[in-house]
Specification:
With 339 residues, this protein is an alpha/beta fold. The protein is built from twelve helices and nine strands. The protein has a single domain, classed as Bacterial extracellular solute-binding protein, family 7 (D-Maltodextrin-Binding Protein, domain 2, 3-Layer(aba) Sandwich), CATH 3.40.190. Strands 1, 2, 3, 4, 5, 6, 7, 8 and 9 form a nine-stranded mixed sheet that branches. Strand 5, helix 6 and strand 6 form a beta-alpha-beta unit. Helix 2 packs antiparallel against helix 10 and helix 4 packs across helix 12. It is globular and about 60 Å long.
């Protein structure tokens, strides 16, 4: 009798435990992963709008199981600090230039080669192809998962001192360049005094005249209100800088395979949106800069050729630093697209 009662009690307890496990399972399955995404662009920049779109696409594609909080305006620090945070896993996603890590991942210095790409379409085709994919996959040993090359733009030049319409006009100007050995050497070869500096410090340096100028896409110049501290702009299209969307390996490996597929698909969907938005805004933004008082000069083709001659030794030297085989293969991919 006692044994029967004990069996009955144990049976009830087992039933209650089983029911609790069944009830708890959906709650566990529905618990969302929350991620932080950092970038340095102002809210008015098309890239900021694209990252909000990416967060929405991820939530939709994962049925709410992955949620992304977007922190723009360099709220999480400079691009270099955000990349370090992504590597350590304290920030989960980053969108921006990869130039701050180019000294440690030398193949990325290919994007500092002046006059590498002839058009936005050519750059996009190469970046979306095998050459671009290899560069993203190469981030794995830095604890990052490369998702997409999400956008990019040609860089131009501005300064507060004088119109620049020739190589000679560049001589002696103190300008900010990206934190990249190739960018530093290229601008010094043009006769300028190149200063590597985190972008978060640039506006103040221009305002106080610690710098004479800097180089950036026109969309970024407008978004960051550089017309307040710069007078002259020169159309050079000297370098195309792509931006990438990357994830922390720590966060990426915490996702299920299904979630990874969904996030990757959302990144590629957002890439198309971001590029279209960047190109659309670039059409009008030069007019806006002029309307704000900036004086524009287009660098003549003959002077661009003179710049190419001046920087040729830099390109030859850095080809050896990066690796001649890699550089030749990359140029080969560009030639395929031009055909």
């Amino acid at each position: 009798m006692i044994q029967g009662t004990r069996r009955a009690v144990l049976g009830c307890v087992a039933g209650v435990v089983a029911a609790a496990v069944v009830l708890a399972a959906p709650a566990i399955a529905q618990e969302a992963k929350t991620a932080k995404l950092g970038h340095s662009f102002t809210d008015s920049h098309p890239r900021a709008a694209a990252m909000k779109r990416f967060a929405e696409e991820v939530a939709k594609a994962t049925n709410g199981s992955v949620k992304i909080e977007v922190f723009g305006n360099a709220t999480l620090g400079s691009e270099e600090k955000m990349l370090i945070a992504v590597q350590s896993g304290t920030v989960d996603f980053y969108m921006g230039a990869l130039s701050p890590i180019a000294t440690r991942k030398k193949e990325l210095q290919i994007f500092d080669f002046p006059f590498l790409f002839a058009s936005d379409a050519e750059a996009a085709a190469v970046l979306d192809g095998p050459a671009g994919r290899r560069l993203l996959d190469g981030l794995s040993d830095m604890n990052m998962q490369g998702l997409t090359w999400s956008g990019g733009a040609f860089r131009n030049f501005s300064n507060s001192k004088r119109p620049v319409a020739s190589l000679a006009d560049m001589k002696g100007l103190k300008v900010r360049v990206m934190q990249s050995p190739m960018a530093l050497a290229s601008f010094n070869a043009m006769g300028m005094n190149a200063v590597p500096m985190a972008f978060t410090e640039v506006y103040t340096a221009l305002e106080t005249k610690a710098l004479d100028g800097y180089e950036h896409p026109f969309v970024d110049m407008y978004a960051n209100k550089m017309f307040e501290v710069q007078k002259h702009i020169t159309v050079t299209n000297h370098v195309y800088t792509p931006v990438a969307l990357v994830a922390s390996k720590r966060f990426w490996t915490s996702l299920t395979p299904q979630q990874q597929v969904a996030v990757q698909a959302a990144a590629e969907t957002t890439r198309a949106f971001q590029r279209e938005a960047e190109l659309r805004e670039a059409v009008d933004v030069l007019k806006e800069l002029k309307a704000r008082g900036m004086v524009a000069t287009e660098m003549p083709a003959s002077e661009l050729d003179a710049i190419r001659v001046a920087i040729r030794p830099v390109i030859e030297k850095n080809t050896e630093v990066i690796g001649a085989a890699f550089v030749n293969d990359f140029y080969g991919e560009i030639k395929k697209q031009r055909k």
